[in-house]
Amino acid sequence: MAAPRNLTVDVVARLNKDEENAKEEDDSPTGKKPKFDRFPLTSWEIAAAIAVFLIFSTGLFFIYLTIPVAEYGKLKLPRTISDLRMLKAHLATFASDYPAQFIFGYCSTYIFMQTFMIPGTIFMSLLAGALFGVVRGLLLVVFNATAGASSCFFLSKLIGRPLVSWLWPEKLRFFQAEIAKRRERLLNYMLFLRVTPTLPNLFINLASPIVDIPFHIFFLATFIGLIPASYITVRAGLALGDLKSVKDLYDFKTLSVLFLIGSLIIFPTLLKKKRIYE
């Protein structure tokens, strides 16, 4: 009778071990199959997100009030190239007459959109090129994109872990594995991701604090890595009349150049890995 009893003990022990492993996998931010019976954010996290949104919105509203009343009807977030052409025509005079107010409002809107993942920042980048030219437009776009991405980084650090794990579990697990393999050359890898469209910038902004990327690495990679794509977009803003669609910005030739730059950036990482294997 000892054998069946031992068998029962073994089965119970194995079941307990499987439950513990399953629990550990569920607790991990990159668990293979996370299951949520409800919306992943707690009431406190939702309240914190709403509070941050209201603070940003209030600041943006007061900036809006400083704009001359005559310009109110002309302000509209563009959604197409045609909308952007109309907006550029309306704002050209205002931008030249009130440059400080316009730049302050432009920067606040760009950072707000980037922080809360509102689509349309590519049109803001085109507008910068159309109104300010390549040099000043590029400086504006890189500054705003970096500031907005940094703000999104800290917002995600506050409430983003359950949301990102819920929305992109597979992609988050892949990202965490890649980061773990490249800790020694993390800046090179992050620069590669920023220069090339390998992963969406939105996902990088949200996932970076979750996989423990240091902020200084994130900041440098964002500031430097966004320059090539921002240059392409700002330069295209000089010729809005010839642009038919946003898709025209990133044709095969442009993507090839971006991936070439990214390959040169990540090459030291690949070379070091090869030496280790040898």
Tell me the layout of helices and strands.
Blueprint: H1 2-27, H2 43-65, H3 81-97, H4 99-115, H5 121-167, H6 169-181, H7 186-195, H8 201-207, H9 215-225, H10 227-237, H11 252-277
Q: Fraction of residues in helices?
A: over 70%
Please give the count of helices: 11
Structural class: mainly alpha
Order of helices and strands: HHHHHHHHHHH
Total number of β-strand segments? 0
Major sheet, described briefly?
A: none
Separation of the first and last Cα atoms: 57 Å
* Shape estimate: globular
Residues in β-strands, percent: under 5%
Which regions contain 5 or more consecutive residues with pLDDT less than 50? 1-12, 22-28, 30-36, 274-278
How big is the Rg? 24 Å
Mean pLDDT metric: 81
Protein name: VTT domain-containing protein
Keywords: Membrane, Transmembrane, Transmembrane helix
Subcellular location: Membrane
InterPro entries: TM41A/B, VTT_dom
